[in-house]
Amino acid sequence: MYLIFVLNRMDILPTNDAAFLQAYEWLYKTTDRSDASIINRCKKWKPYSSIASRYLYRALDDGFTKEDFHLFK
User: Fold this and answer.
1) How many distinct structural domains can be found in the chain?
2) N or C: the chain end with fewer CB closer than 10 Å?
3) CATH code where residue 45 lies
4) In 3D, which of 12, 25, 7 has the Cα closest to residue 66?
5) For residue 66, what are the CA distances in angstroms to 21, 44, 62?
6) Angle at 14 between CA 10 and CA 18, to 5 degrees
7) Where are the alpha helices (DSSP H) in the chain?
8) What is the average per-residue pLDDT within 63-68?
9) Residue 4 forms part of a structural domain
10) Residue 71 lies in a domain
């Protein structure tokens, strides 16, 4: 997290962060949290993995990952 949010590194994939994993599972509709699976699916994000991760954090913060979320109520 320090590398992404403080040092602004562009290609960090936080495979051990709980919030990232929750958003990742929502995005890809999977429960496979193995590092190999995450790295394989997210290799298309390179060299901007940190930016994609930030979008996932934002989706989590805004409630998009909740099952009962409705964009238009």
Assistant:
1) 1
2) C
3) 1.10.1670.40
4) 25
5) 14, 25, 9
6) 145
7) 18-28, 35-42, 49-61
8) 76
9) no
10) no
